[in-house]
Amino acid sequence: MQGMRSEASVLHLDLDAFFAAVEQRDKPSLRGRPVVVGGTGGRGVVSTASYEARAYGARSAMSTAEARRRCPPGTAFLGGRFAAYSVTSRVVMDLLRELSPLVEQVSVDEAYVDLAAGDHDLSVAGLTALARDLKERIHAATGGVRGSVGIGSSKTMTKIGSELDKPDGLLVVPAGSELDVLHPLPVRSLPGVGPATGDRLSAVGVRTVGDLHERSLTDLVALVGQAHGTGLFRLARALDDRPVVPDREAKSVSAERTYATDLTDLGRLQSEIRWLADRVVARLQKEGTAGRTVTLKFRRYDFTTLTRSQTLPQPVDDARTVTDVATRLLAGIDRTGGVRLLGVGVSALATYVQGDLFAPDEAPVVIDTEEDEEETPAPQSRSWHPGQDVAHAEMGSGWVWGSGLGRVTVRFEGPLTPPGPVRTYAVDDPALVPAEPPDWRGTEDQKSRS
Amino acid sequence: MKFRVAREVLSDAVAWTARSLPPRPSVPVLAGILLEVQGASLSVSGFDYEVSARAEVDVSSTEDGRTLVPGRLLAEIVRALPPHPVDVVAEGARLAISCGNARFSLPTLPVEDYPSLPSLPSTAGVVDSDAFAEAVGQVAVAAGRDDTLPMLTGVRLEIEDDRVTLAATDRYRLAVREFAWRPEVSGLSAAVLVPARTLADAAKTLTSGPEVVLSLSSGGAGEGILGLSGKDRQTTTRLLDAEFVKYRAIMPNESASHALLPVGAFTDAAKRVALVAERGTPLRCEFTPGQVTLRAGGTDDEGQAEERCDVEFDGDPLTIGFNPTFLLDGLASVHTERARMDFTSALKPAVLSGHEEPAEDGAPRPGSYRYLIMPVRLPG
């Protein structure tokens, strides 16, 4: 059984309430107040809650409706602005790459860094100084986003470390002291131990990682199965030799949508599949990849979820083929009762694509013309979502505070202004247009506006 | 039924007929081979409602008759017989076969339940049997094997007076071959889609005589039949009831560059380099004046290979990727010493064709063959 590194040279960074932090940076009137970012529709789910909102019990993955019940009036419920998050994320990832060439980005707000591949002082004091400096530079470069850093001898240790001291945390676990840190922790704090496994372990008296350590491999395998049992056995001993892999390649590309009302109409389902396939293919093409396996994910009205997939003889990256295969897969599913969620994915990715003699000539993947206009469930051009960046001909830059009944309310402020004024317009006011995310690093335009 | 026949003659006829027996017959009698003796002639037939095969051989017979025997078993027995004359006698519900010191007694199947074979449709024309076998082989290689699109499993057969055009595609490559024939009536025009595997099999095994007669009934709604008769053998196949793609529209009519490849040397090099190309990964061909460099593999956990081959190349340097199987299939089908490959761009179909060496009398070889390969788009 492979062990771990003999020195604490893996760093894990997890940005704190990242989406909410970017919102609070760009919307000064929300600083210090509860902010919930996520789906704001009938079945939306919380992506991120600010620490102010967490104090009221709002959590990631909770339904937005539940978060609304828990949070006080005045809580901002915003749809996401992924362009803004991604610009900010890139700034952070660039700072990490200055530390080491080996940076494994796990998601937009989380990454591992292999410090052994950089030239660093790996003593506890050296690592603490490095982490403190990194956190300060992230805060400065992002205009206020904070992150928690864990440093240890393995990915698992560093992830647990950054989690333990959140938010704005810093924990260095020196090599050799892993078990001292791990054993007092509840088993639920281990990655991969959810409520189900937690309950099973607790039923046999295993509550802490220390309890887990006392169990034999045979016991654990009998309890939770071969793979999971072996994993837990290793985790309890801090055994984790997974390397930091830069630019980890995506294994699949997918898109899915949850519907406000269950879909039953076959024509509508087919147009939804086409819509999802277009998005998946656009991403495949952007990354220059293609895949051989097309998967359709299907969640029924009663939450039963099934997936069907078909593997093709050649990798594909054209929307027509993905749509055709996914539609064929749909035909084999019992749709009685309606569909709550549909997803289309492409996996078995390859960087080469066998051309198709009969594909339309160099078809660019854009959403098709008129035909799709009618069928695409995309919002109408004049709909505004809460949190969206807008610009007004006279008032300048701002964001959508809310809309409804033909009106849209906008607060005019930006990352470099004090909290600004609120104005209400007709939704189709020609002076109001969608805008790019504001630049927190300061431009003349934003500085000159009061 | 009682006859005597030469062992080789019988085993050839039975083996040929047994090829078209269905592996999993929908009704038991279809697993049978029908033996019919009339005068000095024995016919050996098989039929599965899609394909029929019928071979005729000369025998010395003392009693006419017909009997249906399990086909595969008969084929295995006949193939294994010693080199002596074979005596076959129907004895009630069994068939006795004796040859040298060997004796077999086979159960028979109810011959009255056996469907009658389709009669040959009216003759459409006549083609040289070797030329036909070559043309069909060159084209059928590009047909698809995936039954979900029946159109792609067929060979398109187009007749336009004294020219026949065959075409097949699996959507990644397209093979087209034209040849001359003698139509039964002048001005004949027809286009049908024939199951590729059946056609390839038939054409290959009908070369014992100089000519093959094509007969055609293109009744609609899946009723169409193609008949092929060579010396002592005839076969029919049901036509595919599907439209074929408008393949002429995708044949490039100009090229930006072309290469002349020594087929043998280039094929050997491509086969070697392709050894490291795992499942469907491309073979990169980098063409520069005077040579092509073939590469495959490349990522850290794969093998890598590279080989240079001298070719004539005219045009701007070009790097193009191909599925190695598709490229090798085409190279094996041109049947010339050198092959010409025409390119438009690295993303457009490349056209492989035979390069006719100038003949002494300057006469062009009849026929034409083109094999289009859609390239694999390379990363980067």
How would you describe this structure to a colleague?
The complex is a heterodimer of chains A (450) and B (380). Chain A has helices spanning 18-26, 51-54, 64-70, 82-99, 124-141, 155-164, 178-182, 195-203, 209-213, 217-224, 226-236, 266-287, 319-331, 370-375, 444-448, and strands at residues 10-15, 35-38, 46-49, 76-78, 103-107, 110-114, 147-152, 170-172, 252-263, 290-300, 305-316, 339-350, 353-354, 389-392, 396-404, 407-411, 422-426, 432-434. In chain A, 38% of the residues are buried. In chain A, the strands form 4 sheets. Chain A has a 5-stranded mixed sheet. In chain A, β10 and β11 form a beta hairpin. Chain A has 15 helices and 18 strands. Chain A is of the alpha+beta class. In chain A, α4 packs antiparallel against α5, α10 packs across α11 and α12 (266-287) runs antiparallel to α13 (319-331). Helix content of chain A is 33%, strand content 25%. Among the domains of chain A are: 18-83, 3-Layer(aba) Sandwich (MutS, DNA mismatch repair protein, domain I), CATH 3.40.1170; 181-236, 5' to 3' exonuclease, C-terminal subdomain (DNA polymerase, domain 1, Orthogonal Bundle), CATH 1.10.150.20; 252-350, DNA polymerase, Y-family, little finger domain (Dna Ligase, domain 1), CATH 3.30.1490.100; 388-434. Chain B is built from 6 helices and 28 strands. With 380 residues, chain B is α+β, with helices and mostly antiparallel strands. Chain B has a 9-stranded antiparallel sheet. In chain B, strands 15-11-12-13-27-26-25-19-23 form a 9-stranded antiparallel sheet. In chain B, α1 runs antiparallel to α2, α3 packs antiparallel against α4 (196-205) and α5 (263-274) runs antiparallel to α6 (324-333). The interface between A and B is medium-sized, with 14 and 23 residues.
